[in-house]
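Each record in this resource describes a single protein on a pair of labelled lines. An example record follows, reproduced without changes.
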Amino acid sequence: MKLRTMFALAVLSLAICASGSAEKPKYSLTVHVVSSDYSISCNSNYMCYGLPKLNVTIDGKKYILASENAAVVTGINLQGTYLVNVLKNGNYPARIVKDYAENPAEYHRVIELQVAAGVARRYTVVGEGAN
């Protein structure tokens, strides 16, 4: 009888633990995308990289955000067609995932935008008040 009771309690506690959902990210900020672009830069070896950038406002302050995911878009030939994802203008729920300041004048901040249900993109602040 004790063994059954212990087994039942163990199964019940596992079920309770499993039913608790994993903590979902809280998107407490609203980022307003004013404009977005996809800049391509090439090095001397003809390796080209595409970098999505956003001009945004957060709480009335202007920022420039750059995607954490630069993509190799081509080798030598720049005449091909490439898939470019540009974020539409509008409001997006967001959260700060990294905020580091070594001194009062400089900081490093990464912001995650929820661009669709279950889809998030991370951007690094690369400019402030410059757009």
Summary: Residues 2-19 form the longest helix (18 residues). Residues 23-128 form one domain. Confidence is low (pLDDT under 50) at residues 5-12.
